[in-house]
């Protein structure tokens, strides 16, 4: 899949995320929610969960991709408008983790969609998730600077 | 042409109302649900298959990752099964620590559920409130075990870490905090008008249907079935707790009807029960060792000499989880079978959805506290004998067969 150049101009505002569970054990999912709760309060950075991929800038993917959900993952990815970021949360999304020998796995996710940031951990702490999203932001800014210098 | 028409409505597998991928196919007439069909399998990760190639200790960490919310329940049931097969007697102190960790987990799971249920009916203030008070029990678990989720504390024949006396103040502080906030939280959750309007007489599971469809856990108790593994088949420290009895909506002075509100009552009262159990365990904690054999390799070689089978039953926050293991002179079990509570409770959805409005679908789904990740470990066979979990290889085979049929 060819990736369009990420333009900072279109992502200058708050990052809205769509949470996509691709066969995870719920641990990462409840930590994403805990990140948005009053203790960690990621909404102060403008990060919030949205109900449909069409409104999202960021795809938060949890879980290693099972065979059955593979097609749905691709469909959701295509529905997210450009420019988009993909953040993988958890060890099994990054490397299959503890489910290495499983016959039901099509993943890990970077086999079929480009990933910007991996957040390792089983599950990662809410601080790590906020840090990962901040890293994604930095990544856009750097690519913007490079593109600006080249042109 | 008839004026009454039904139309299909598909919800899932990726839908913001569920945190997990599961698909519901409804037949709708007007605003009412006529029939409901459920399609599982999106989180099937072949845990039992992987377990065959791992040894007894490695399996513990695999089982924790069946479900991140009940991450003590599955290893607990597995440990009980293996200990039964190998006739290992767990030290009393380890039994009490297991109970404390299990009840802390129930506390955080029920608070989590209350928040999610409130979110499903659009009451986000309560969602934020319960998740905020839930952070306290996660802090406590982190101090005791070293992790917020997936604690890694259980092992065969005991627990891996002791609750040392310098950790008692942390536990005591957590208990005091929950005793303080409980009454206020109960009032906010149960006495709230909008919750009562949305939850009463919605998604009813009658007493007969709860028995017929083998509901377990809070779902069964809300329908007036006094079924609780902690009371019926007590393990760990539960036999010592004489006052323990299954929670019923009668505790809140309400005749059990089996609706969503009853399930909410049961879970909220179980929060208080859990705090009481932890308090009891702390007061009566016996001294002594916490482990039969601290070295994992020695434990594996002991288990390698065993031939036999065992069943472990444990009351997870969602209901009964049972594990069956066969030991046959191997480094790991010859066979491992897992039965998760959502496997029983998921079937009761069919009855609950009878005549439910479309707008109530999310809260009825959430009301059994589904854990799809737990249940997706097997092929589901419907009445027609059709397998609903199919790998791409299966589909390829079917496709080839059809091609052959057409080609003839």
Task: Describe the protein.
The complex is a heterodimer of chains A (151) and B (408). Chain A is an alpha/beta fold and 151 residues long. Chain A has a single domain, classed as Rossmann fold. Helix content of chain A is 33%, strand content 14%. Chain A has helices at 27-36, 70-79, 91-95, 126-150, and strands spanning 16-21, 48-49, 58-62, 85-89, 117-119. Chain A has a five-stranded parallel β-sheet with strand order 2-1-3-4-5, with helices on both faces. In chain A, helix 1 (27-36) crosses helix 4 (126-150). The model of chain A has no long low-confidence stretch (mean pLDDT 84). By secondary structure, chain B is an alpha+beta fold. Chain B has one domain (47-344): Cytochrome-c3 Hydrogenase, chain B. Chain B has helices at 47-51, 56-64, 73-86, 92-120, 124-145, 168-190, 193-199, 207-212, 217-222, 229-232, 260-283, 296-304, 341-352, 361-367, 372-375, 392-407, and strands at residues 7-11, 23-29, 32-39, 154-155, 158-159, 307-316, 319-328, 335-339. Chain B has a three-stranded antiparallel β-sheet. In chain B, strands 6-7-8 form a three-stranded antiparallel β-sheet. A two-stranded antiparallel ribbon of chain B has the order 4-5. In chain B, helix 4 (92-120) runs antiparallel to helix 5, helix 4 packs antiparallel against helix 11 and helix 6 (168-190) runs antiparallel to helix 11 (260-283). The two termini of chain B are 40 Å apart. The chains are: A alpha/beta (151), B alpha+beta (408). The interface between A and B is large, with 44 and 39 residues.
Concise synopsis of the structure shown:
With 151 residues, chain A is of the alpha/beta class. Helices cover 33% and strands 14% of the residues of chain A. Chain A is built from four helices and five strands.
